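Predict the 3D structure for this chain.
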Amino acid sequence: MSQTEDKMETIKKSKEKKKENIKTLRAERSKPVDGSSVPQPVDDLMLYYDAIGGRNKRNRIYGIGSSVDIFYEPNGNTSYHFSSLEPNTQKYQKMENELQEMKD
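Done. Predicted structure below.
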């Protein structure tokens, strides 16, 4: 295998792992609460953030890149909270589409 093929295989495995993480977290978080048969609503932004492991060393999020602050706002500490705003941007739509593909 060439270096390019190795790199592509690594990327493919990483993507599959993230996809599996999303499925697992969605199943866990959507379980009905005590005595209810209705699944819990799932915050897709939080789910995605947790499934991919948060920010990387460049302070970016996989699939969002440097546009991270459109979706996740700093709260003044080293941690972040999720914006309750639903930005209507092409990047947001792209992320939603990618997330939907991972769900399928």
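The first strand starts at residue 72 and ends at 74.
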